[in-house]
Predict the 3D structure of the following.
Amino acid sequence: MTDQDIIRKVREYFNAPGSAADIMDQFKSGGPDCAAALRLLNAYQRLMYYHSGCSADELVCALDKNLVRMLFISPEALIKNTKIQSSIFKANSRGHLKNIVIDEAHMIIEWGTSFRVDFQCLDSFRRLLADDNASLRTYLLSATFSKKTVDNLKNFYSDNGRWIEIRPDTLRKEPRFDIIKCRSYTEKHERIKELVCKLPRPMIIYVNSPDDAETIYGELSESGFDNIRVFTGKTGSAERERIINEWVNDKFDLMIATCAFGVGVDKKDVRTVMHSYVPSGADQYYQECGRGGRDGLPCLSVMLYTDDDIKAAMSMTRKVLTVEKLCGRWFSMLNSRKTNIQLDSIIIDTSVRPDYSDTDPFYVEVNNADITKRLSDHCPLFACFVIRPFSKTDPPTFIRSYPAFWKQTTNG
């Protein structure tokens, strides 16, 4: 078989049904030319990505022919786009899927309970894939893993004790930190305007809320700064894409943003990261400081705060209903004598007071399998909490959005 024959067969393959395995079986019959055929076929495999606004047809076609070497996709698209999801399940069944890589995996725990909740659906999706492909590996990546986050991820993602942890922890050498205490709100905002004039740019000013972003934007505009962008949770998808492209391509050098900005945005020459508030934790602060100095050169990390900012941060931390507390409250209601256990449902009384201590390590000791078993012990036909009975043809709105998970929950 000559190189021309191999090229012709590869071209025929692109216009004919069948899998890569089928065409490789044909190549193997040609003897030693199999390696050359594999190299040619690999050359056609592509890196692909999908985001809102893209057409899924090209991706689905490539997935169906095993021509995707690496796919970049958001959890939302993976969970909610049934066409892509179906093609991935089929590719996985053929053994084409080898690895799942979740970048910024700290978000599963730290954000997934309230913002971008589809991150927390990835574990259920992964388990469905692993049931059909035992060799599938999962990689969880982040620059800021706290011990608590790692413990929780281990409960989600370790299967039968299989867990390898690599932590090359090291502090970034680029940032120079400066913490400035202000006596009042007015003084803080005056200092912000002063520092914007004096400190090097590109610069990111992190704020606590969209309203704060608009306030600082207005004050800086009145001071003569006219090339500024604002990026918050209220920024629409099309506007976000435009702002990020302009930021990366140096169309402006002053960004005002909430924590919604930064993940996945790689601009190497940011010289100053300013915080006009106190973040909820050291992890968030260090993650946001890490937006600066990615070119290896020095950068500044400046925080301006008042006593009220400290009180606000402490108050927010204390009042958050954490995963641990939520788990404790649910088990308090489940184990209550007021719980009404029926054949296909469990009716709970939400007025039951929690009977756990704040120091009880619920979430560290309870994983998905434990929860499923405890629920199954109470209600063997329906291993899930319900407030009212429902049927397979009429699932709750949330489950209706995830048909694969609904099917798994009801055993088909």
Notes: The chain has 19 helices and twelve strands. Confidence is low (pLDDT under 50) at residues 14-19, 359-376, 378-412.
